[in-house]
Model the fold of this input.
Amino acid sequence: MGPLWKMTVVELKLFVRDPTTMVFTFAFPLVVLVVLAGVFGNTPETGDEGEVAFRGVGPIDYYVSAYIALTISSVGLIALPVRLAGYRELGVLRRFRASSAPLVAVLGAQLIMMLVLTAVGSILLTSLGFAAYDIAAPEDLGLVLAGFVLVVVGFAAVGLLLGAVLPSARAAQGIGLMLFFVMMFLCGAGPPRDVMTDSMRTVGDVLPLTYAITVLQDPWLGFGWDVTGAAVMAATAAISGAAALRFFRWQ
Amino acid sequence: MEEQDGVAIRASGLRKSYGDVVALDGVDLDVRRGEIFGLIGPNGSGKTTTVECLQGLRAPDAGTMDILGCDPASDRSVLRTKVGCQLQDSALPDRLKVWEALDLFASLAPGADDWVRLVEEWGLASKRSAAFADLSGGQQQRLFIALALVNKPELVFFDEMTTGLDPASRRVAWQLIEEVRERGATVVLVTHFMDEAEHLCDRVAVLRAGRVVACDTPGALIASTTAGVTVTFTCDVEDLGWLQRIPGVAEVSRSGSRVAIQGAGPVLVRTAAALAAHGLEPEDLDVERRTLEDAYLALADQPSAATAEGLAG
Done:
């Protein structure tokens, strides 16, 4: 087995042995989904003047795809940078460097791990949605999967950049959690954007989770392919990824 | 070819600054193949920076390096297969198991050693499936040493490898270092323990304020920096003035019944002969040899062009 594969397997094992991160990554979105279903149910509602709250679909149809994006953002903004910054802080990266571990293996393992984790999280969310709330199946599964990979790569790049520049696990955790909750509440994974004020929407417009959600939601709900969102995610991936490689420090 | 001229490391004029702090101020080193080479010096004298440059972990600001015929800055693949490192200030993920660490690092080096054998040799067999964080300090250190050897290196750097080991583990580590050398590898040992350097090293370089101030065998360093020996014994006889007349004796001092004679040359034999001639046979006649620690302290005290802050830092 090559170093990339070995490192990926080790990273996945370490993730499974870390219950706190596991619970936050997998259980948190499930619990919030159950709470929201209790509050809103899954029936599309239209106001007296024809205004809609959840893009005109059932709230849980809305939230399952949004929470797949949220799970991806949680791994990319918190778990991945905490891991990388902690490795630098403890001297794990120094140890790797001294053995000439290829950078591609160190960072690639994080990306593959993130793909696996977020795929598991997405399957859990979707299964809960189908089993308990009878959500709609994806209209265009192929585009949903393409959107999934694009969003994972985009947030992985953001995570690698945060992990590359933040000095310690503690700093990564603080900044990651802050970014995560700001995005969760302003990008449509908390209150839907339809009910936000204009200023909230404006802030949401510059945050990547907004686009991550629509890239997954549009093909799922039959709104087509979100070209703008896909372009934003691709640009996020390219710019953050290049910056991560540029600013990465082994010690 | 470099392979034949018996040189493992040749470094000249290494300089490295961190902002205003000069860590290396022109370090020159030659390490021969097959020797155990020690680097000693006070904290902040540049020992770790020197080995980090030689390991390719830091780029020096100036100077040239030749490691086993390669430049560590540009030729990392050679380092991967020929050089092993045990680093100060490094760690592994808390929940990584011993066997997983060895397996992972073995995968980084083509033609790596059989790590199962390393687990046995380094007394980690019972800890194979233990997590890194659950190992004692000594066990973690032994794991790092095993990791340093996993690529069957021709040159191994040990940076304060016995720090944190209990005395018994230290002796085991010393034996294993000698075994590493007997198998043909060159060893560079950074240490704060003078007994360790004196016991293990063929040659020792003393760093001070980013420069090599002395480099020789431990014996030669001791001889060049400290004069003579001290002979001691216990004696109740009042008049010992004749001791002063023994050739080579510089000073006789007395503290109660304890007598100390300082001098150079075969003072012990002459003192013993003189005592016997005077009918005295003290049972505790002993000689205090100068150690590398004495030489080190003498070198550290010597005035030099460099500032004294280098010693404190």
